[in-house]
Amino acid sequence: MPKKKPDIDRVFHALGDPTRRAIMEHLSQGPVSVSRLAEPLNMTLAAVVQHLQVLEESGLVQTEKTGRVRTCRIESSGLSVAQQWITDRRPTWDRRLDKLGELLAEPENGR
Amino acid sequence: MPKKKPDIDRVFHALGDPTRRAIMEHLSQGPVSVSRLAEPLNMTLAAVVQHLQVLEESGLVQTEKTGRVRTCRIESSGLSVAQQWITDRRPTWDRRLDKLGELLAEPENGR
């Protein structure tokens, strides 16, 4: 579980892979075991574990072992680093409108 | 200048490369010509143009030729797609606090 601030290179490298983004999409619905995570992916468990290691080292995913089950969940620090980098690249007026719009939209879409 | 909605795969692939992120960082300070953009990068103009093509095809950069000078600028649609994807992966309380915090911080840092 890396506790130092995630590195922007690692985070974007990790998110550049469609399988790893699929894993993140699955985990955004809630924590899940490695074996459940692997079910819809057309690859070996070992390959899934490798992708999870990349995500964990980038601060995008946390895993925790209880007995024989390893549970994975989204770790927000990696996503924060990517989000901040993107926000800093946008024109000021654009960024403010975007954040305001998203904030106002939140209560209605119930997420 | 692609006007269709940027593809999430292309956007994250484009942002996964450190040179392309350096180009985005340079452009976030304002529009600039291809030759000025290439100056601090330790590579041929042809290599820079290739990176720019990837960024342009992902909807992250717009380029426009006037006479012999091609000017590049950030195109916000690609960044929006990446930002939205990241936002959708975060727990709700986390997202709301983040947006509120960033929104409140904006006037003070003057960006």
Overall mean pLDDT of chain A stands at: 86
Any idea what the shape of chain A is? elongated
Overall SS class of chain A: alpha+beta
For this entry, what is the oligomeric state of its chains? Answer: homodimer
Neighbour order of strands in the largest sheet of chain A: 1-3-2
Roughly what percent helix of chain A? 55-70%
Q: Largest interface: which pair?
A: A-B, 36 and 36 residues
SSE order of chain A: HHEHHEEHH
Low-confidence parts of chain A: none
Fraction of residues in β-strands of chain A: 5-15%
Largest sheet of chain A: 3 strands, antiparallel
Cα(first) to Cα(last) distance of chain A is 27 Å
Q: Your description of this structure?
A:
- Two copies of one chain form a homodimer.
- Chain A is α+β, with helices and mostly antiparallel strands and 111 residues long.
- In chain A, 61% of the residues lie in helices and 13% in strands.
- Chain A has six helices and three strands, in the order H-H-E-H-H-E-E-H-H.
- Chain A has helices at 8-15, 18-27, 34-38, 45-57, 76-89, 92-109, and strands at 32-33, 61-66, 69-74.
- A three-stranded antiparallel β-sheet of chain A has the order 1-3-2.
- In chain A, strand 2 (61-66) and strand 3 form a beta hairpin.
- The longest helix of chain A is centred in the last third of the chain and has 18 residues, at 92-109.
- The radius of gyration of chain A is 16 Å and the shape is elongated.
- Chain A starts with 7 loop residues before the first helix and ends with a helix.
- The model of chain A has no long low-confidence stretch (mean pLDDT 86).
- The A-B interface holds A 8-9, 12-13, 15-16, 18, 21, 24-25, 27-28, 74, 76, 79-80, 82-83, 85-92, 94-96, 98-100, 102-103, 106, 111 and B 8-9, 12-13, 15-16, 18, 21, 24-25, 27-28, 74, 76, 79-80, 82-83, 85-92, 94-96, 98-100, 102-103, 106, 111.
